């Protein structure tokens, strides 16, 4: 019989997150050697990860941080069930992913996968953590923005789950008014889901297609030809108000646009990012 104690089982369970029977079997195979047992558990975890490859990862969380007030970093990490999404282990995993994103300077998921975590690439580290959690885990995306002042806002769509929506907003000024405006705009963006920061960022092809649809719709409605240009441009303006952050009606005061709120604070938004789990 392998030489190990109940304390050894407990310690290895805490290190790996594996079940008691899996830990006991590994210690038996390793003749009580904890390091060898951990390696065996990891190997089994890798095999389990292969089986999990085809599973859907529609749950998870968004987490973010601001470094020195000027650099915002945000990540989305996905799992299979909300049970795991709200677990302490998964939340701690996401925090480690965020730390790796900050330290590495990664601006896309591919670069983040190569970031170092405990002496190995994040992609390998995640496999071991997924084995412990028993679910497929995916680091879906990362955003990194910089500005004179950056605000991060995380929103819970359910009180029982971690944040499912995250927003970063950068502005070109500093001070209390700038900070308040940046935060208010971040909260607004979480609720109103803009796609672009300004009209200039909307692809020309998208604008032209929307203009064509507006014109064809107006013609089908029998609108007078003399008023066609004005009608089409009006509908295009309405389209921008739906998808462009600075054109949107400000959630806290719909008589103003987001752009006007920023202008009154003496700043302009220079970048933003919004993540919602699964979308």
Automatic annotation (TrEMBL):
Subcellular location: Cytoplasm
Residue span of region Involved in Mg(2+) ion dislocation from EF-Tu: 81-84
Keyword vocabulary terms for this entry: Cytoplasm, Elongation factor, Protein biosynthesis
InterPro entries hit by this protein: EF-Ts_dimer_sf (IPR036402), Transl_elong_EFTs/EF1B (IPR001816), Transl_elong_EFTs/EF1B_dimer (IPR014039), Transl_elong_Ts_CS (IPR018101), UBA-like_sf (IPR009060)
Leader sequence segment: none
PANTHER family for the chain: ELONGATION FACTOR TS, ELONGATION FACTOR TS, MITOCHONDRIAL
Protein name: Elongation factor Ts
């Amino acid at each position: 019989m392998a030489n190990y104690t109940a304390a050894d089982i407990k310690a290895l369970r805490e290190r790996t997150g594996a079940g008691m029977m899996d830990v006991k079997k590994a210690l038996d195979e390793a003749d009580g050697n904890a390091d060898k047992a951990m390696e065996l558990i990891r190997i089994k975890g890798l095999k389990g990860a292969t089986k999990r490859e085809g599973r859907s990862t529609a749950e998870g969380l968004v987490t973010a941080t601001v470094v020195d007030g000027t650099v915002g970093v945000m990540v989305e990490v996905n799992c299979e069930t909300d049970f795991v999404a709200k677990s302490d282990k998964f939340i701690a995993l996401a925090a480690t992913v965020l730390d790796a994103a900050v330290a590495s300077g990664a601006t896309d998921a591919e670069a983040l996968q190569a970031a170092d975590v405990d002496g190995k690439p994040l992609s390998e580290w995640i496999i071991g953590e997924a084995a412990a959690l028993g679910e497929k885990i995916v680091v879906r995306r990362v955003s990194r923005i910089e500005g004179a002042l950056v605000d991060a806002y995380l929103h819970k769509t359910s009180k029982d789950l971690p944040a499912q929506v995250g927003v970063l907003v950068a502005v070109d000024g500093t001070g209390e008014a700038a900070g308040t405006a940046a935060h208010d705009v971040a909260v607004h963006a979480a609720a109103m889901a803009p796609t672009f920061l300004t009209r200039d960022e909307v692809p020309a092809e998208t604008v032209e297609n929307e203009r064509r649809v507006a014109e064809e719709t107006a013609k089908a409605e029998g609108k007078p030809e003399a008023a066609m240009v004005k009608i089409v441009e009006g509908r295009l303006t309405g389209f921008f108000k739906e998808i462009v952050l600075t054109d949107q009606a400000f959630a806290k005061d719909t008589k103003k646009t987001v752009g006007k709120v920023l202008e009154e604070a003496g700043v302009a938004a220079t970048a933003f990012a919004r993540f919602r789990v699964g979308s």
